[in-house]
Specification:
Keywords: DNA-binding, Phosphoprotein, Transcription, Transcription regulation, Two-component regulatory system
Largest sheet: 6 strands, antiparallel
CATH superfamily of the largest domain: Response regulator
Strand content: 15-25%
CATH class of the largest domain: Alpha Beta
Distance between the termini: 42 Å
Domain HTH luxR-type: 273-338
Number of helices: 13
Modified residues (4-aspartylphosphate): 68
Shape: elongated
GO molecular function, one term: phosphorelay response regulator activity
Pfam families: GerE (PF00196), Response_reg (PF00072)
Number of domains: 3
CATH topology of the largest domain: Rossmann fold
Strand order of the largest sheet: 7-6-11-10-8-9
């Protein structure tokens, strides 16, 4: 989770203890809670009005907010709505402190973004117990986010990219750096817009994936020429973008979120992978690639700008390195390896 310099300084001063923001316009309430939390080892910030609360939350990124519901000026409900509307503070759990016990006020507190509430007069032990529950949940969420981020970074490092799309509205809510580059290159779109061809594919297959747990067929997009629109790729059309529906990552009453993993597939990428994995020179890998594609030595010579005899010599060296004796056997070894390295590639 991103932090600010102030947040880091406060946590260092508090020996990395949880940082609590208390918001109340009554000094006696602040004093009671401040002392109780301080004695329990928390690092405490205070705010006496809504504007101050928003400023301190943005600067310090507390781990939890204890928020008075009724204050002059910006009340607690509005403070909560603004914190939840800002991506930098939306993750912070908010516990309301209220003297209002009518159901409509308690519902309003939860609808504004609160995870819990305590009633006044404040009982410090109760507040500490409620806080501990929500802080544990927030820690788990942060750990999950870190692990998810590490997994996504690993995907990028291995040439894979990923995006998360929210249905039913079809908004792209998250993407790796590589995914941003690929979507711009192949679809000329930018977040939060999801490419229409991707959205159509996702809407068609998500219900089946959700209900039956079946992975739908991959989507393949050919990079369009200038002025053209992206389209589904046919076999053997050079560079293309392959997308697979990975898994559902979230669901609530308003919709659900889907993670899509993509990878650029091209002749060049496959040839490089074959060269590295089979310990072939670049030219030997090229020759073997075109053998897999069913080309003759004459065809290969023309493609590579050499003679059929040169193609034959390269192929003979490939036989030795792979421990095979025939063209068919060499192609078989190559196809098996390609399917391991680039399962989405159309052979």
């Amino acid at each position: 989770m991103e932090t600010t310099p102030l947040a880091r300084t406060l946590r260092e001063q508090g020996a990395n203890s949880d940082l609590v923001l208390i918001v109340d316009d009554v000094p006696d309430n602040l004093a009671v809670l401040h002392d109780a939390l301080d004695e329990s080892g928390y690092t405490v910030l205070i705010a006496t009005n809504g504007e101050q609360a928003l400023q301190r939350a943005a600067q310090a990124r507390p781990d939890i907010v204890l928020l008075d519901a009724m204050m002059p000026g910006i009340d607690g409900f509005e403070v909560a709505r603004r914190l939840k509307a800002d991506a930098a503070t939306a993750h912070i759990p908010i516990v309301f402190m209220t003297g209002l016990t009518e159901t409509e006020h308690l519902v309003a507190a939860l609808e504004a973004g609160g995870v819990d509430y305590v009633t006044k007069p404040i009982k410090p032990k109760e507040v500490l117990a409620r806080m501990n529950v929500h802080l544990q949940g927030a820690r788990r969420a942060r750990q999950d986010a870190r692990q998810a981020g590490q997994a996504r970074n690993a995907l990028d490092a291995f040439g894979y990219a990923s995006i998360t799309v929210r249905l039913p509205e079809g908004r792209l809510i998250w993407q790796t750096a590589l995914a941003r580059e690929l979507l711009q290159r192949y679809c000329d779109t930018r977040a939060p817009e999801t490419p229409p061809v991707v959205l159509e594919w996702l809407r068609r297959h998500a219900p089946e994936a959700r209900q039956q747990g079946i992975e739908p067929p991959a989507l393949s997009i050919v990079r369009p020429s200038v002025g053209a629109t992206p389209s589904a790729a046919g076999p053997s059309q050079g560079a293309s973008l392959s997308l697979r529906l990975h898994r559902q990552t979230g669901q609530d009453d308003d919709g659900d979120e889907w993670m899509i993993v993509m990878r650029e597939v091209s002749d060049t990428a496959v040839i490089e992978a074959m060269s590295l994995s089979l310990k072939l020179t670049a030219r030997e890998a090229e020759v073997l690639y075109w053998v897999v594609k069913g080309k003759t030595n004459k065809d290969i010579g023309e493609i590579l700008g050499s003679s059929p005899a040169t193609a034959k010599k390269h192929l003979e060296r490939v036989y030795v390195k792979l421990g095979v004796e025939t063209r068919t056997a060499a192609a078989g070894v190559a196809i098996k390896r390609i399917r391991e390295l680039q399962p989405q590639f159309e052979i």
